[in-house]
Amino acid sequence: MSTPDLDLETIAALLDGRLKGAERDRALAAVADSEEWSALFADAASMVNEEQAEREVPIVSLHGRRWSRRASVVALAATVAGLALIPALAGRRGSDSPTELLSDARGGLPVGWEQRPWSSVRSSGDVLAPEARAVRVGILVAELRVAAADGDTAVRALAEQAAGLIDGAPAGGPAASLFRAIEDESEIERARAEAAQLLGEEGVALGEWLGAARIAAARQDEKFFAASRDILARTPKTGAWQRVRESTGPPPRWPILRQALDEATAGY
């Protein structure tokens, strides 16, 4: 694929995770730049659910053509959940961080913030997928922003966790060093930008939203989820992500929302 032109076959390949590298980046950029294709992409992703995991899923194009593909929730779990959010998350980077949607950016980290939704126990043979690494770093960035704004001493520990994740990526040394040098809010953005360049903006952006959402759910911050309606509208109708959308209300069902966010994040 030499140009960012899209067709149904390319969207299917993107949903299935069959596009890699520059080809995938071009397709994502083309989807994000087109309102029509963004809507079709979100609609297609929403049709993939747990009940349809092992049967043919028909999808109708905007031009009336029909096609079908094999839908596997297992294969799509690491891609559809994140990719369907990309158009809505585009532009939410830098100073426009999801943590700015919190009612109180200086409210500090909630009780139990250190309990990660992913397993911290990995065997020597485990390999962390690039998307998972990016999402986890994004979650830590959100927590770093909140901790730094509150003057929390947890900043150093969080920065070290992010650096440790980045150390495992090829050529991750410089970005990891930036995280280890963080002492206040002003240094977080530079480290985040370097991590996004290394690991992929889309994964880091998704992780940063998830991190802020977990903090908002723990605080019962309804404002955050009201401000995130455009993002939530694009989440696919699969498993925990569907429950995240449904439990945001009104009014939000906080226990279900917290559990659903943890389950959605656990895939990373």
**What form results from the Cα inertia axes?**
globular
Largest sheet: 2 strands, antiparallel
Q: What structural class results from the helix and strand content? A: mainly alpha
Q: What is the overall number of helices?
A: 15
Which stretches are low in confidence, meaning pLDDT under 50 for 5 or more residues running?
A: 48-81, 90-95, 121-125
Strand count: 2
Topology order in helix (H) and strand (E) letters: HHHEEHHHHHHHHHHHH
Estimate what percentage of residues fall within beta strands: under 5%
If strands are numbered along the chain, what order do they take across the biggest sheet?
1-2
Q: What is the average per-residue confidence, as pLDDT, rounded to a whole number?
A: 76
Which bin fits the share of residues in helices? 55-70%
- C-alpha termini separation: 28 Å
Can you tell me the number of structural domains? 2
Radius of gyration: 18 Å
Describe, in plain words, how this protein is organized in 3D.
- The chain is mainly α and 268 residues long.
- The protein has 2 domains: 8-76, no CATH class; 82-266, no CATH class.
- Helix content is 56%, strand content 4%.
- It has 15 helices and 2 strands.
- The chain has helices spanning 8-16, 21-33, 35-46, 73-76, 80-83, 86-89, 130-149, 154-167, 173-180, 188-199, 201-219, 222-227, 229-232, 239-246, 254-266, and strands at 56-60, 66-70.
- A two-stranded antiparallel ribbon has the order 1-2.
- Helix 7 (130-149) runs antiparallel to helix 10, helix 7 packs across helix 11 (201-219) and helix 11 (201-219) packs antiparallel against helix 15 (254-266).
- It starts with 7 loop residues before the first helix and ends with a helix.
- The relative contact order is 0.14.
- Residues 48-81, 90-95 and 121-125 have low confidence and may be disordered.
